[in-house]
């Protein structure tokens, strides 16, 4: 391992599940990269809803992953493991990781890293991987999105929602989003959403029906589940695809399977974190070829909400849980 890498580092962990206040700094050993891995000196770490769920005890890390929260980071490669070229050391990368991001150093599989150009701030780079990988896989691979189709996204100003809007528009989709107030609706429209529905004041089923002339949307990206599923299906056009990526509104839903059959719906969903390294490497390669150039040339930029120092991760989680954020929350570790 390179001599400039210390033996210990500061990280954010917790002893027992609970509210944001259970998060606290701790001193832990710097991990050593294994076969195909790199060690990133973390500049910034993204904060995501799954981090909150992990802290609450609802989303444990997969086997072999770091117990520390944090699913995306940016920084410079400090050391490489067997099978990775030494030339990577010192280069700027961001990465999708299965855990461990809330720390001064973090392991990543080299196949899950994306190069960060000089023009891209590392704070922005840390705000991209989790939502980009999730949206690309679920909208374009599982949802088979095609140019000219219409996508409905719930939580339009969340990290996922803003990424889905930007990517959808970049690849020729019409995008409808739901938001909780007019300020968020305005923010969603400024990102390119063709229709932003205030779900507290409007029935999104009726608004979608009106906007599409009764046809419905081809794809729903659902983060709510629960009783939203039946309403989502009422929004789908024939041969529509319903893709679930979170269950914020509950795990169970009642579905009229006769409607699913008669309208030829596809119901699918996924969780990215436990997927194999090989799968994520293939996904990263597809993203680097098709979507990453739009970020490299600054055509697309993540929507940034607020940053917090690493030691204030609890405040970052409190902001996310309050639901007031628009775009991504990040933690500053080393900056840059």
UniProtKB/TrEMBL annotation:
Query: What is any Pfam family matched here?
Result: ADH_N
Note the InterPro entries from the entry: ADH-like_C, ADH-like_N, ER, GroES-like_sf, NAD(P)-bd_dom_sf, Quinone_OxRdtase_PIG3
* Annotated ranges, domain Enoyl reductase (ER): 18-331
- Region feature (Disordered): 1-20
Name the UniProt key words of this record, in alphabetical order: NADP, Oxidoreductase
- Gene3D superfamilies documented for this protein: Medium-chain alcohol dehydrogenases, catalytic domain (3.90.180.10), NAD(P)-binding Rossmann-like Domain (3.40.50.720)
Q: Which organism is it from?
A: Pelagerythrobacter marinus
Could you tell me which NCBIfam families the record lists for this protein?
Answer: quinone_pig3
| Name of the protein in its database record | Zinc-binding dehydrogenase
